[in-house]
Amino acid sequence: MKLSLTQENLSRALGSVGRVVSSRSSLPVLSNVLLATDGNRLRLSATNLEIGINYWIGSKVESQGSLTVPARLFSEFVSNLPHGAIELAATDNVLTVKSPHYESKINGIAADEFPLIPTISNDPVLTLDAGIMKEALVQVVIAASADEARPVLAGVYLYTEDNTLFLVATDSYRLAEKRIELPGDAPQAFSAIIPARTMQELVRLLGEAEGDVEVYLDEGQVMFRIADVELVSRLIEGQFPNYRQIIPENAETSFDIETAEFSRITKVASLFARESAGSIKVDIRAEGEVSVVSSDSEVGGNTSKAECEVSGDDGEISLNARYLTDALGVMKSPVVTFAISGKLNPCVLSPAGENASDDYIHIVMPLRT
Amino acid sequence: MKLSLTQENLSRALGSVGRVVSSRSSLPVLSNVLLATDGNRLRLSATNLEIGINYWIGSKVESQGSLTVPARLFSEFVSNLPHGAIELAATDNVLTVKSPHYESKINGIAADEFPLIPTISNDPVLTLDAGIMKEALVQVVIAASADEARPVLAGVYLYTEDNTLFLVATDSYRLAEKRIELPGDAPQAFSAIIPARTMQELVRLLGEAEGDVEVYLDEGQVMFRIADVELVSRLIEGQFPNYRQIIPENAETSFDIETAEFSRITKVASLFARESAGSIKVDIRAEGEVSVVSSDSEVGGNTSKAECEVSGDDGEISLNARYLTDALGVMKSPVVTFAISGKLNPCVLSPAGENASDDYIHIVMPLRT
User: What counts of helices (H) and strands (E) characterise chain B?
Assistant: First the structure.
């Protein structure tokens, strides 16, 4: 293998594929990144056996070949090189890297020990603007479960219904649902539960990407393609809970408030709620005031207030402050509606104010106090 | 105690004094910050029994008094409040904090349990521009020892000689010396070894400070005063090593190089030197080239080169890459001189190029290979 490419392209690609490398795998080759020529391009691949990435970059290929090298060392090394041309050459499992003033040899492992990252050659089930997909995932993935006790809850549920794509996640304490209207004719019907970790990786890959992301499904697998990058992941098997039944239809009490202000008074109250595992009370007065209260504990107590427009009666609900802060943190609209129906039913946060879209809800279950 | 002040001033003061609070002390009151009225000002104090800070801020004091409250909680709380006026009131060891929309109670500990932070009422032994002091400390403190095995090496040695202030630190592997010419008449003669941790704290306090810093010395103690802030610390007892004898007087080989370029080729080489505990070789060719070489190891090997102006013969020296990177990192001048006399003597780094001042040297001991 012998080729040349630019430091800028190689460094960017290594930054992306490097994140899925498992640094503590028992299989040494999994700490490596695969470099393989593919016509006039270089393919970089990395996998932790759950997620795999293939990343192609344009190169001047003199001779074909492939080799794997330690991902972390290679990535740090390349990122410290000056911009401009880099020459890569592989002989006897040693990669020689040359750039003006720098010459390194990196010991590798033969490419045939590297696991195959499968590709999916069906037609895509969905094509969507990368920016829209990223924004939707950021709003939803935060509600997925961090533990694997109930595997389906550690995923994001994607499905189409009529002309709408739904993205849903819940860890059973909170739930986020985003709806995206799909343009054109009726889209292909599909549903899939995709690991939250895969979705977090996709969010990073989407980064500042322009253009479209394509979604491919196959037996037990999903693939996302953004330009010259493919992210492949296993799917989660099982049935996603019938979540719609827990979304309250009406509210006894609701108010509109500036998202930043609500976030701030919640954060201040949460400082005093550490001893009570983050429990805070949202106290709504019909005359137009909301208080976030952390009850007295060993360190002290706090009441934070804001004026707001209230519809309905007085009301109160106890919540985990972190879930409320998380929800407000992914709310795009500058104004949010907070709605409750008594202290035993979940509260609903949704975008409000002028021009707010009606395509997102975030539900938080109450704490019983 | 009852008073009002601005969120901005209180938050800034808490940020500064909070850093010396020992969060894991066996004495609970040491996790607290002392609030005490002092005429028309509020004094905030914190100490870890080695370093103490007194910080005064202007306040509208209605009634005098004092109380200590948990530093971390109080600081986080205040930093999250909106800008503007804050009211503090203490009754029965409870601090009530009011600002528009926020009301909190924080349980405290009586002020008389808080240790006294001594002040020094002598005349200052030195008055220096805060910016000059900060820059000098940054360049020197990095060479101090991080462990206390030899206490004097865990400090920065300050002394005056003729019209010059010397700041010196060494961990026995490297040494940094900064000289500052003092204006006016002969300064007061003094010498003191000040803990490196105190100096790091002083660097932070000097931050963007304008004006002068005053240095006060007393039996076993040092105090720095910057406007309304006093930093008090114990001194280190003992004799600082007679360091001048290890500074080489002449060089067999030396070269001038751009500081950033030298730093970059060292960093790249160091990536390959992890197995050899950071050992790299600087190889100088009289015809005008320097290489930084990490010898072949299990991961591979690297040679990084730069062109430069060499005086004298060929030469080489083995160094710990981190010490070289550290030294280059605190070098202010865009060009640096690197000088050696054989592979067994220390190397000397000093500012070079146009307008470079001749007031700093950084010495790194060689590795014997």
Answer: 6, 26
pLDDT tens-digit map of B18-68: 999 977 777 889 999 999 999 999 999 999 989 999 999 999 999 999 999
Q: Where are the alpha helices (DSSP H) in chain A?
A: 7-17, 71-80, 130-141, 196-206, 259-271, 321-329
Nearest 5°: phi and psi at B100? -50, 125
Per DSSP, A353 falls in state S
Asked if B306 has any chain A CB less than 8 Å from its own CB, the reply is yes
A247-364 sits in which CATH class?
Answer: alpha beta
Contact (CB, 8 A) for B280 and B318: yes
Chain B interface mutation, best of A261, A267, A271, highest count of B Cβ atoms under 10 Å: A271
Q: Which CATH number fits domain A126-243: 1.10.10.60, 3.10.150.10, 3.30.160.100, 3.10.310.10?
A: 3.10.150.10
pLDDT at A26: 79
Q: Does A350 touch chain B (CB under 8 A)?
A: no
- What's the average model confidence in pLDDT over B226-251? 94
CB proximity A105 to B under 8 Å:
yes
For A292-314, write each residue's pLDDT tens digit: 998 767 888 889 999 888 999 99
Domain A2-113 part of CATH 3.10.150.10: yes
Give the pLDDT confidence score for residue B219 in this predicted structure: 87
- When CB atoms are compared, the residue of A81, A103, A303 closest to B103 is A303
**Interface residue of B7, B68, B80 to substitute, partner A, most A CBs within 10 Å:** B80
| CA of A103 vs chain B CAs: smallest distance (Å) | 5
- ipTM value, please give it: 0.83
Residues of chain B contacting residue A95, judged by C-beta atoms under 8 Å apart: 300
What pLDDT digit, counting tens, does each position of A131-170 carry?
A: 999 999 999 999 999 998 999 999 999 999 989 999 999 9
Residue B210 gets the label, from left (phi > 0), alpha (psi -120 to 50) or beta, of: beta
Mutate to test the interface with A, among B93, B262, B274, B299 (most CBs of A within 10 A): B299
* Extents of the domains making up chain B: 2-113, 126-243, 247-364
* C-beta atoms of A264 and B82 within 8 A: yes
| Domains B126-243 and B247-364 belong to one CATH topology | yes
Taking contacts as CB-CB distances below 8 angstroms, the residues of chain A near B101 are: 265, 304-306
Q: What is the mean pLDDT of residues B210-220?
A: 94
Minimal Cα distance from A95: which residue of B?
B300
